[in-house]
Amino acid sequence: MAAALLISMFDTSFLKGESSSGIVLPGEDSVEVGVDLDSYSGNLEMLEAVKIDKSNIKRLIEAMRRPDQYHISAGSTIYHSSGQSTTVTEGYVSGEISKSVTLDQSGSPKEHCILTDDKVYIWAEGSNTWYEGSRGGFGVDNGLIIPTYEKILDLDEADITDADFSLYNEIYCVFVETSDPNSGYRSLYYISVDDGLLVGAQSFDGDMLVYSLSVSVLDMPQDMNNVFRLPDGTVIKSE
Q1: Backbone angles phi, psi at 98, to 5 degrees
Q2: Strands ordered across the beta sheet of 186-192
Q3: Contacts 24+ apart (CB under 8 A), 115-118
Q4: How far apart, in whole angstroms, are the C-alpha atoms of residue 109 and residue 143?
Q5: Which residues 6+ apart lie within 8 Å of 43 measured at CB?
């Protein structure tokens, strides 16, 4: 899976009878048993085999299978007292490389960002030069200007207040509700059961919506070389 998304499958070699797994099968007795998450053929089968709750949702999300290549469109909207502002970004992932393209109000490319394991490349649309540097703290969140499912994996378990199945825009998802101890915001994240990708998010200040995200999966381009090409024609590839 793409290193740009920092996916690392954790050890799921749980043994029956051990309580350290924290995975609970549904049932009247709610007895804790070991579950080998890698033994399931798909995300739905795995998720329906356990009782989802706030104590195990991070491990379940990390274990979900995701495509090695995908193309998304993400709309991020910030709501404020004078109105709202929306940023639309297209994102591409192929193996170890990811790219984001921020669009202007007319839907035309405005800024490009390519991330590899160790480097970042950024340039404005139409420019013949680009910034190239160490990836450092850059992540998909920085490039796409949106959260990803990794946002949930980075949370303190104490900040997760609820987790379960839900529908989001008619997509079968698992949702995670969180509370930010610093801002006080309550946030909801929706992850597609089908492909394990984040498809939506919302943040609230009390009852007031302050941020929303909606993600759509698009068809992959036929020629990926054009996607990961710098202004001088150099194609960035995984090493």
Answers
A1: -135, 155
A2: 131-134, 119-124, 109-115, 97-103, 83-94, 69-80, 208-218, 198-205, 186-192, 171-179, 160-168
A3: 115/4, 115/139, 115/140, 115/143, 116/3, 116/4, 116/236, 116/238, 116/239, 117/3, 117/4, 117/238, 117/239
A4: 14
A5: 64, 65, 193, 194, 195, 196
| Distance between CA atoms of residues 113 and 191, nearest Å | 24
pLDDT tens, the chain, 239 aa long: 332 322 222 222 222 233 333 333 333 333 333 445 555 458 888 888 888 999 999 999 999 998 989 999 999 999 998 999 999 999 998 888 889 999 999 999 999 999 888 899 999 999 999 999 988 766 555 555 567 788 888 889 999 999 999 999 989 999 999 999 999 999 999 999 999 999 999 999 999 999 999 999 899 888 888 999 999 999 998 76
Report d(CA 137, CA 135) in Å as an integer.
6
